[in-house]
Amino acid sequence: MKKIIILLFGIITVIGCTENKKHEKQDTKIQANTSKTWWKEGVLYQIYPQSFKDSDGDGIGDFKGIIEELDYLESLGITMVWMNPFFDSPMIDNGYDVSDYRAIHLLYGTMEDFDTMLAGMEERGIKFVLDVVVNHSSNQHHWFKEASSSRDSKYYNYYHWWPAEKGEPPYRYSIFDPEGAWDYNKATNSYYLHTFAEGQPDLNWENPKLRQEVYDIMKFWAEKGVHGFRMDAFQFASKDTTFPKFPEGHEKDFIKWYGMRPQLHDYLKEMYKEVMEPYDVFAVAEGAGSTLQDAHDIVDEDRYELQTAYHFEYVDMAKEPGSFDLTEFKEIFTKWDKSFAEDGWLAIFLANHDKARIVNRFGNPSPEFRTVSAQLLNTFLLSMRGTPYTYNGDELGMTNIDMPNIDDYVDIEALGNYKKALKINSDMDEFMKILNYSSRENSRTPMQWNDSENAGFTTGNPWKSVNKNYRDINVEAQDKDPNSVLNHFRKMTKLRNDNEVFVYGAYEMLDKHNKQVYAYTRTLDNKKVLVLLNFSDQESEISLEEIKQVETTLINNYSSFTSTDSKVTLKPYQAVVMTLKK
Ligand code: NOJ
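^ thats the input. predicted complex w/ 1-deoxynojirimycin below
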């Protein structure tokens, strides 16, 4: 029988079904979350350094390229930058396999370039968030090289091993490797664990020496002046080290079986004391367990662990063409908002370097609706509660590319999933259709700066082909057009930066059954705003009591809208933000 395998490591992180002791009683009240701090007020922009701007013609983005674009960053109105890893690395997973946590990969420049870039951001009021990849290292890190040379190495216990005299380890799923998460090492006659690829051995967080090494690395960067850390895949750091057999049928709660053990909280509290507190930096967790409660246990203020989290339930929507459902989308965002109305803080995002482009997944990439739907999505991200995360290129409405053949792919995840699909005899046409739509390579194409060759990204041969639509979608063209996606993005960041109601204001969803329109209010003290978003390619109506209280229109991605006393008719993908009389 043919099967379709489900793509991407997001699938194994279905979140939030079984809830929730402490946070279950908030259904009826709306609440402003007002304990104030800079990282709640910030607007974060994610830079994928490999694809942002190449200054030396080698086809790969670099720090000097980013330095050239510091004024662009400032012009966006963003106040934080999270950059994907740029450390020494064999690059089997584009830098998420670090071989030296204190060294800059030659491709990106030097430590001096990094310092110049950081200082340039600082001057422009932009704080820097470092990607910390410490669930695993590269197998080329000297810790692993030494650990795998002898059981007597002082680094042996920096990793997880299964001594071969115990027989073969029980099968364990690997996110990237179709052959599973254990690999045999001859010199030590042991199997080592790799939750991700073979070249990404898991670090052993049980070992206090390893933990101290990690804190020292974080301190090194905090002393250089970074303001925050994004903890990569951190829910896997603490595991059941008896490595029991994975119970069949639990693929959806993968993390429960392979990570998120109670010791995670001890490690995070220790990290807080060692790094976050003394250096006054913040950290965001990638993923946050499987339930709302898991996420609260990591980020609530009185936990002294991490400060904010992004969970996967948002981005796990719309994995296949045509599967986006606005009702589900509204429910998910509302559920998480309600749960975090008083305690804890979340990132608000729809995409990153691990997902396809937002316009393709949640909007409409057709020439008719691409601009308005991208504007609508950015209006949403920048008017919700939580720190908004924008992935580079989404401020322009960049779109997916078309890659129908597996030979076009270079990403370890895509190639691993392809092999897994073959292994279980999947329908490969169907597999390729879904891969083409959802692959993370879609969002890794070079940034589109202008309409010159290679979109102004490089004068050389780009490491990844530029999206063919760069003559229509690029910074230079959009800069000049007051109605572009880019200028709409700037209006939204300004609105958010100037009005605390968008940061701290209570959120309330209106007309939850409306299948086309997402409507909500944000309220803080005597300020109240109404956000109306028509997520459909049809004109749509919404009837609301609040329409009578409309005062002024702050944002509208069309020149007008039609309304009576109680009803608004919105054009396709129209996004409107209005103030209301209180
Ligand atoms: C999550 C990162 O976002 C992804 O790009 C990477 O492949 C895995 N963690 C492994 O580090």
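The longest helix spans residues 208-224.
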